[in-house]
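SEVERITY: medium
COMPONENT: batch folding queue
REPORTER: lab tech (J.R.)

DESCRIPTION
The queue accepted two submissions in a row. Attaching both inputs and their returned structure tokens so the on-call engineer can compare them side by side.

ATTACHMENT 1
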Amino acid sequence: MMSLASCPLVLIGAGNMGGALLSGWLKRGVPGASIIVIDPRPSDTMMGLMSEAGATHLTEAPKNDTTAGILFLAVKPQLMDAVLPPLKPLIGPQTVVVSIAAGKTLAGIEAYLGKTAAIRAMPNTPAMVGRGVTGAYANETVSEPQRSLVETLLKVSGPVEWVATEADIDAVTALSGSGPAYVFYLVECMAEAGRKCGLPADLAMRLARETVAGAGELLHQSPDEASRLRKNVTSPGGTTAAALSVLMDDNGMQPLFDKAIAAAKKRAEELAV
């Protein structure tokens, strides 16, 4: 897929998101020998994957004169201040830094690593099953070849959408980054409503889970807009229309989601450092 022999792909953190990326890269043909993973305590699964692929595993930043071609930061935001300083020797003129840590601005990263080509990306947890979506912003130092290469690497977990400003990443975080939790809570609410209508709790949960999973797959595969798919299910005067008259009321789901996502965006802005 690519040649990173002289300037390797360095992944910092092989947890849920980092591990999903690593697995996707190897499946898509990135040679393991070109990958360095720095993680003090990777899981047994990740250790096995790295060993089988021939990737290099380190518990800390290398002491030699290694220069990263791409430096992927996949650690929790609260760990970044401790993780970043030892990584500065890895930065060279051709390095592009990619951060998937929520709340850590490019300015905050550059305070430790210096001015460099850098990209902020916000994937979401369905990336762990190859069905995520990532919002990304590239600073002015990122070249088109670097941007294209990073997009290819991010696409192993799903589509990539580029935004015009770094501030837009806060909105991406609120919508798609946190979004899976909203969908999971929808399943909880549907199941509880089914239980209150008389269904056994376990049956109600199975029906809710499969309904949301199936509707998501239909949305994924269909060329139709979400509104068209909704209308296709809704017969005039029928049961779906009765439910939607409540959900689409002036006090229904839209104003509630407006408030919820605005609250998430505000919190993302507050956390930005």
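ATTACHMENT 2
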Amino acid sequence: MDALNQTRVTQFVFLGLTDNWVLEILFFMAFSVMYVLTLLGNILIMVTIVFTPRLHIPMYFFLSNLSFIDICHSSVTVPKMLEGLLLERKTISFDNCIAQLFFLHLFACAEIFLLTVMAYDRYVAICVPLHYPNVMDMRVCVQLVFALWLGGTIHSLVQTFLTIRLPYCGPNVIDSYFCDVPPVIKLACTDTYLTGMLIVSNSGTISLFCFLALVTSYMVILVSLRKQSAEGRRKALSTCSAHFMVVALFFGPCIFLYTHPDTNFSSDKVVSVFYTMVTPVLNPLIYTLRNEEVKNAMKRLRQRQVFSMKSCT
């Protein structure tokens, strides 16, 4: 054990997205804008829902939680990536690397479970509307959110344990711009095949199972829409299509990254950028542009703020 501690690496070095300084500056500017938009867009959704009583229903309660998770998820990796784009040597301490992959998997898994819960919410609302108030009251919603955070924590603890139990004595270069389990365990000074398979069975199974559950729920919803009125079908399709777009944007990269143990990290960096950067900034746009209630609530909130400012002056 003493020998292991003496040879254990104390920091990792990221290769980053590119070694071309011109591209790094362009990436820094583009990703900085995207990160700011992610923060502002998701905070705007949360504030709108909190200060609009008519939006205090399960669907928007889950949407506000999704916005919170998107802020946390992007904040785990993006600030460190932006810092690395300005530095020639991109490093992270061993402890910070482990913390980063822990929170990365915590928020990613919480989002997977939340998207599944949101699909269940839409299924109950559309397929059994008479039972919806009893099945999805706020007490149940809070319990579901607590359960998804608990599930995300357990999943993340398992992933972190599988990573830190391995010996790391060099090399210490990670072919990525953030710490994730697959590229980190590749640097372990031992055979990681079994660990890699455990990671696939954990992350990959969760992603695939939840995605299949989502697809099944939407198939049932589409079948049940035949009995709805034209206006009911239009409203249900608008809500469900927005949600399914978010699901596809998030689950696609996750399933690609975590369902195969033999990974090409260079090509996977592009996919990682998509689900750590692009998806969180698109979610507010998808839900606001396609949701009249949210857009109207934002307009009323803005008008109320304008009127309150005029009264103060």
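NOTES FROM REPORTER
The two ends are 70 Å apart (CA to CA).
No errors were logged for either attachment.
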